[in-house]
Structures are given as structure tokens and as C-alpha cells.
Amino acid sequence: MALKQNAFYAQSGGVTSVINASACGLIETVNKSSKINKVLAGKNGILGALNEELIDTSKESKSTIAKLRQTPGGAFGSCRFKLQDPVKQKKEYERLFEVFSAHDIGYFFYNGGGDSQDTTFKVSEMAKKLKFPLQCIGIPKTVDNDLPFTDCSPGFGSVAKYVATSTLEAGLDVKSMAETSTKVFILEVMGRNAGWIAAASCLAGNEFEDPPHIILLPEIPFEKAKFLKTVKEKTQRFGYCVVVASEGVKYKTGKFLADSGSVDAFGHKQLGGVAPVLASMVTKIGLKNHWAVADYLQRSARHIASKTDLDQAYAVGKYAVQLALSGKTGVMPTIRRVSDQPYKWTVSEASLKNIANVEKKLPAAFISNDGFRITNAGRRYLRPLIQGEASIKYLKGIPDIARLKGILVQKKLSTF
Amino acid sequence: MALKQNAFYAQSGGVTSVINASACGLIETVNKSSKINKVLAGKNGILGALNEELIDTSKESKSTIAKLRQTPGGAFGSCRFKLQDPVKQKKEYERLFEVFSAHDIGYFFYNGGGDSQDTTFKVSEMAKKLKFPLQCIGIPKTVDNDLPFTDCSPGFGSVAKYVATSTLEAGLDVKSMAETSTKVFILEVMGRNAGWIAAASCLAGNEFEDPPHIILLPEIPFEKAKFLKTVKEKTQRFGYCVVVASEGVKYKTGKFLADSGSVDAFGHKQLGGVAPVLASMVTKIGLKNHWAVADYLQRSARHIASKTDLDQAYAVGKYAVQLALSGKTGVMPTIRRVSDQPYKWTVSEASLKNIANVEKKLPAAFISNDGFRITNAGRRYLRPLIQGEASIKYLKGIPDIARLKGILVQKKLSTF
């Protein structure tokens, strides 16, 4: 074992507008530390380790690494890839340790959501079992905000700010058109099982009459008649109606409104298109409508990121290194809320053992009795997360993003 | 006739993220002038005149008027309403002049696109015919950029910046996911007959491999086989493919891919949903994809407006007043490009007679031979329009918008 070990870092699952800020926090902290040699980033997540495709971050300039803070997406490539069950099939794990050993990797940092934390936990358990000296730290990331034990998940605050801002802006648009044209506007946002993103749209308005007028959450079974009755009522009352719908809205039977029939690598149903389904219902009751599907725009919109979220994303990357350096493994940095007003937070930690594959849904106390609005308790929770603007530099009118060299370290092993 | 006449101002057609900046330019210029009494804004466009619903802008504070610069949508309400043919049916015109007379209105400012300029022209002709002392000035506005005689239309530059930025951001997202998940991303943008908005997405990239890889324009008949072949090629070559499609993409037969069957007040077909149509084609050739429909988000996104566009929107509002004060009628301020590099522009004017109902499409010289890309000439035209950021103030994490009192002047006439 070399005196100073390298760190492996990879990005996993759906990316966010600030996951690269976590990468930046991690790399800058490693580079300042005297105990870790350098960061080797997996090209396309854990696949980079399996395929021995390791990006040498020491070949990137300081300014490129700093620019990761204002670059959305996953700069090193992400993946949706589930490692096989280590009890049934050890081959993938053996390969990982073979690669880590060949490249003097003593630290494993995996930046992702629930599924990715599960991967990190499995790797840490296997390392212990095989007595392989590897400290495994998960770094939280998910726009869905569904990770337990952390007050919020880095990535969520920025999509929340995007959705609140877009709801406000599009709401003003439809309000101006409503007298003679569009009366109902439907915005579809992400959120398969947890309605956090749709809920955040409530921050668009401060007054009762402000959009959004109806929020559709996966937590609340969709009732068509009740929905259409409410659309009609709100339109009569306010002249227009803005609806924000989670992609994961489902009927009481569990059937998604937007079931497209296909599944991803983790077996999750792929969704999309709840907005046009709702729009066609609204058209049938005679109300002219428009609909938008934000899809990747919402989770990549670094230009409207939340400063709070960006700072937290950077902080968990930095803290992950500190945890590793203090000898921890099988843990993940978490965001701990110290107070609501003024909002104060700190970074803490949680064991990965209890995190894996648990989804934190929107608490019932955050949802109004009619199921269509967010309570004051919910607003109190959400509001701090979108505070502050994280302005970026522009070049020729568009965001000035990091363009990595992405130089791979020399392979030492045969192809997997 | 009172010594100092009032001005009528109204917003018409689809709104933009900077139409209120034109209102601001107009109102601030009137308020500084000693020749016009005050601005009465039509509530919901020309309907405000017909219904004698006139918002007294002198009741709004200076700071509220200033804040219009950072407020998207139509602050006074817009409309899609076509005045009847004055030859066949004079009733509406007679009502207009009755209202203008009752409220000492000597200036008519109408802020809109092609249809609205047609309305302004008809009102100016009728005023001449009836010898009613009314100076009619059109103020250009359209995200579609399809007005002739002006180098560009206020409203377009900001949607262009939104689309270029979103294409860049979502492009980074799909690039990170492509190895194991989404390979093709389709963004649907506005543009019924003219592909200016989709074309502007070309500014997202500077290198050949940068997104967007395919732009679908209404000017180029859609060929399914050629499209799918190109999607496949780009995906093989770059690992992923980003497609930006105009809502108005149509087959050689003229049939829109996204024909929803309904029409608006001007008889235009209402479109929406070309992205899911394209996505289902791409799914059938086995490429996993995601799609987004920006809809109202794109034209209301004041938070990412172009400074150039904002300045031009303000300038045409201001110049409209100057034209009126110099005794002009039946004209519209235009943007004249003085030079490309450095970009210099000035405000000029054009007669409304020749503007009405002419749509300026994307010139053939701006479209590559394969029909999927924008030429250097096109980029040279487009690039300056997205330059500069027009930052806004935020309040509690969301844009701080103008909230008008909207006090109506006392009615003097019976209901129309």
C-alpha cells in the first residue's frame, strides 16, 4: 500500500444542477489535504471503476475545478446501474477491489440518491468482509428530496427554486391571457413517489389567490371528478387556474396517470406525460388550457439555482472528505436544520445502513385537508431551501461551463 | 377637447417576459412629457377600451411602474380578440371612439404582434376617416420574431436566451446520463410558422459536437425516415442526441405533427405536443429518451431575459411616445441593426400599412443544407440578441414582481 492513497469519486443516478458543486467541494478539499493523493473520478459512475475508466482530476486546472460550481449535469458522467447482489454474485465486487487495488484507491465516494447509497453501503460491507482497506462515504444528492435522516437533499433546493419561479412567471402569463384565451395552465414536474418538487411550487405565491391553485401529489390519490370540480371553481373565482402536477400522480388503484409502460435499470416505472393527460380532461370540461413538461430543464437549471442548495451541495462534498479522513466508513454527510427562522443549518452524518432504499415522502402535516395545497408547516420547511441566488458567469450570452479535459489514467488491468 | 389629452395603452396577443418593459418605457416617457396628461391602460387589451375598463396608471407608484421592467406577463391583461371588419361592421370602432372621446384619449398605443398591428392600422384608418384626432402607434412585441421591417421583435431575444440556456443545461444532463440511460432528449419550443425560437437553440453550443444536434423547423418539411436516421447517427457519434423542435413542425402535406384540432380567436390552429410525438418515434427505434415542452415557461422566463432584448423592449415603448409627440400616426417603432460586430442598434419606424399580417420566416440562408442546423449567417444574426443578463431582484427566494393596484377610472358610458 502506497503512503498516500487515492480517492475514487463517482456520480450516480439522475443528475442535478449542483451535483458538480459537491464534486468541487470534494476535489478542492482533497487537494488541500496532505493525506489523500488525488481524486480519480469514475467515468459514468460506478461503471468507471468496473471498466477501469478513471478520470485523473489532477490534470484539470484549478479554475476548471472551481467552475464545476456553476456547471449543471454530471461532469464525469453518471449512470443508472445496480451492482449485483453480493451474496449471489461477487464478480462485480471483486473487480471493484481489483481496480481500487491497482490504482491505490483507499477512499470510495459515491454521490447519489437512495439507490446509490445502497451501492455505497454494499461496497463498504464487502470491503469489511474482505478486509480491504477502503473507506466508503456516500454523498447525498437527489432532486426528489426523498433521502431520510437528512433535513433536505442537495439538488432539491435548486429545483424547488426553479419550480417556484417558473410557476410564478407562467402564472403571470396565463393570468394576462385568461380573459379571452388560456384559462388553465398545467405544469408537470418530477417526483415519482414523493411530492416534494410539486409542493415547492407553493412558494410561488404569498396570497391565497396566487398560483399555484392546485398541486397534485403522488401522496394523494387522484380523483378526477374532485380535480375537475376544483379547476372549475378556481377558474370561476380567480379567472384562471394554475395546476402543478407531480409526474407520479396516481389513481387510488395505484395506476399512474402517466404510465408509459417502460422501466429503468432499477425496475422503476418510467413516467412522463401527466400534463397532457390532465389537459385533455380539462379540455373536455370546456376550459382552454396550456401545459408544460419541465423534465430535465428543471433539474439542470443551474442559472436559477438556490444559493442555499449550492452551499449545501459544496458542504457535503467537503464534509465527505473530512469524514473519511477521520476514519469513518459506511456513512453519509447529512444536512441538519438548526433553526427555521433565521434558517441555520450544519452538516452532520448518518449511517448508510439505515438509509438505503428508504424514501422520505411528504408528511401529512404538510398537505392541506383537500389535498391540493401546502400547509404553513410545509411552507416553513420549504421556504429556506430556495433562499439566495447563486449567480453564474455568462460567455457569449450563455452559461460559462466547465469543459473538462477528462484524461483517463493508464489502464493496468485487462478488460472486465 | 381638453388641453392635454390622455394616452390609451394596451397589451395584445401572447405576452412575453419583457412586454411590461415596453409599458414601463411608454409610461415613464409620458410621465416625463408635458404634452400628454396620463396613460390609461386597457384592462385585457382592446377589450378594456370596448368595455370602458381603463386602468389609471397615475395611481400606481413610481417604483411599481419601474418594477414592470422585471415583471413578466402582461401586467394590464392581454387579449386574443380580433376587431370586426370595419367595412362590414362599424359598431366596435364607433364604441372605441366613443370611449376615447369620453376619456380625452388622443393617443392610441397598441403593444402586440402581427394581428395587433393590423388592429392598430385599422383603428388609425378609421380615425382618419372619421376625422377623430387620434394618433395610433403600434409597439412591436412577439416571441415569434416574425414581424417584418424590424430587425428583431422585442420579446424574442429573451426567449432565445432561455432556449439556448435550457438546451445547454439539459444537454449537459442528458450527456451525463447517456451511457446507461437517456440517449435522446427532445425539447419542444414555440414557433407555429416561423422557426426563429428553435433556431436560437443553436447558440447553446460553439463546437460541432455540442447540442443541439438536430433542430426541427416549421420551414423545413418533416421527413420521418431522415429524422430518425439522423438521430441514430448523432447518437452513435456523440453518445447522445439533443433535438429542439418547433411546435409548428409539419409534414410535406402541411399537416402539423402536433395538430390538436382546436383553433384560436384568429383562426390559427392551436398546437402543442410535438415532443411526445417525436419521442414515441424515437422509442420505436430503441433509443431511450426524455422530452420537455417549455410552453409558457419560455416566454415568461424574465429571470433569464436578455439585457439586449429588455433594453429594446423599453426603447420601443419610449420611442412610440416620441413618434406620437412628433405627430406620427399609423406607424410602429422598429429595431434597426447598425452593425453585427460590435452589435449596434437604433430605433427607427415603419408604416403599419405594410406590416399587418405579414410573417417573417427564417431565411433559407440561415438553414443548413440538411435542414437540421443553423448556418454561420444565422448565428451571426442571432447571437447579439441574447447578449447581456438583465438581473432581477428576489424577495423571499422568488422574483420580486410589480403588484399593480389596477384602479379603474370612473365609467362615463353605458355598458357596450
Structure in words:
The structure is a homodimer of 416-residue chains. Chain A has 416 residues and is α/β, with parallel strands linked by helices. Chain A contains 12 helices and 15 strands. In chain A, the strands form 5 sheets. A 5-stranded mixed β-sheet of chain A has the order 3-2-1-4-5, with helices on both faces. Chain A has a 4-stranded parallel β-sheet with strand order 7-8-6-11, sandwiched between helices. In chain A, helix 5 links the parallel strand 4 and strand 5. In chain A, helix 1 (19-32) packs across helix 11 (307-325). The mean pLDDT of chain A is 94.
Tell me which protein chains meet in the greatest interface and how many residues each side has. Answer: A-B, 77 and 77 residues
The backbone outline of chain A, from C-alpha atoms, is elongated
Which radius of gyration of chain A do the C-alpha atoms yield? 22 Å
Main beta-sheet strand count, sense and barrel state of chain A: 5 strands, mixed
Strand share of the residues of chain A? 15-25%
* Major sheet: arrangement of strands of chain A: 3-2-1-4-5
**What is the number of helices of chain A?**
12
What's the domain count of chain A? 2
Overall mean pLDDT of chain A stands at 94
**What is the second-level CATH architecture of the largest domain in chain A?**
3-Layer(aba) Sandwich
Total number of strands of chain A: 15
Give the CATH topology of the largest domain in chain A.
Rossmann fold
The SS-based structural class of chain A is: alpha/beta
**Helical fraction of chain A:** 25-40%
